[in-house]
Amino acid sequence: MKKKIIPSFLFLMGIFCLLFSLIPICFYHIFNLGALLLLAVGLFFISIGIFWHPLWNWYRQTPKLWGKRLFSIGCGVCLAGILCLAGFFTVMAKAAYFTPPQEGDNTVIVLGCLIQGDSPSQMLAGRLDKAVTYLQAHPQTRCIVSGGQGENEDYTEAYVMAEYLVSHGISPDRILKEEASTDTEENLLFSAQLIQSEGLSEDVVIVTDDFHMFRAMERARQNGLTPTALPSQPPWALTPCYWLREVFGIVEMYLF
Q1: Which tens digits make up the pLDDT trace of 133-184?
Q2: What is the per-residue DSSP string for 111-135?
Q3: How many CB atoms are located within 10 Å of the residue 149 CB?
Q4: Residue 14, burial from CB neighbour count under 10 angstroms (0-12, 13-18, 19+)
Q5: CA neighbours within 13 Å on the CB side: how many for 179?
Q6: Which contacts (CB < 8 Å, 24+ apart) does range 33-37 have?
Q7: Taking the CA of residue 106 as centre, how many other CA atoms within 13 Å lie in the half-sphere pointing to its CB?
Q8: Is the CB of residue 239 less than 8 Å from the CB of residue 215?
Q9: Cα dihedral across residues 210, 215, 219, 224: positive or negative
Q10: Helices 33-50 and 5-27 meet at what angle, rounded to 10?
Q11: Which of 5, 158, 220, 246 could form a disulfide with 225 if both were Cys (CB 3.0 to 4.6 A apart)?
């Protein structure tokens, strides 16, 4: 019975990874690095689960030292990768869920993402709904909506976000639009410049998806802001691929 535990576990992990890669690809047409990596990992784990016993028998019976070392190195690399991901996910979760907004004078910054025509995407609507709730509870707070116009977008993300907030009862006088940014770095750079020019509080409440919060907060600090987090959650089926993709975004932020 014990001999079946490891291959069964690997096979189930492979099915899990495969499922959460195919849902974004097939139903949301998302082909980001996270989804593609989950697909590769899923196929790898399924293959290992199926062929575990021949591989293990080969490892035990081979007289060649290089073969045993190669097998051990492969297992070590997999374990190190899992531990590394666990560390990244812990830091990302801490930023999103353990740095809540403090009472007082804050400026809300809502980070943009994909829009569809003149409407926010599902993920962007989730961010905006979080902002609406916070702004209604803090009627003196000003808000910056940050996002430029992508190649396949008819309007700037900031314009669509502002219209959404106004349609949900937020006064236009409380909303500032930052319409030039194209990525997270520019979101926070241009928002910080807008805060300075308008004399707003540098204590900011960042509204974005939970997986994105750590990188957004780091960019805010780099631009002299003091950030806290108001996270939204992506659709559950997209959570694994986006959390995995974000790891590469964090690495890129520190390297480049």
Answers
A1: 999 999 999 999 999 998 889 999 999 999 999 999 999 999 999 999 999 9
A2: EP--EETTEE-HHHHHHHHHHHHHH
A3: 18
A4: buried
A5: 13
A6: 33/244, 33/245, 33/248, 34/240, 34/241, 34/242, 34/243, 34/244, 34/245, 34/246, 34/248, 35/241, 35/245, 37/244, 37/245
A7: 23
A8: no
A9: positive
A10: 150
A11: 220
- The pLDDT, as a whole number, for residue 1 is 47
pLDDT digits (tens, 9 = 90+) for 187-223: 999 999 999 999 999 999 999 999 999 999 999 999 9
What does pTM read for this prediction?
A: 0.91
Task: Please compute, for residue 168, the number of CA atoms within 13 A of its CA located in the half-sphere on the CB side.
Answer: 17
Distance of CA 90 to the CA centre of its chain: 13
Residue 4, token pair as written in the block? 């079946």
Q: Which stretches of the chain are assigned E, i.e. beta strand?
A: 107-111, 115-116, 119-120, 142-146, 175-178, 203-209, 226-232
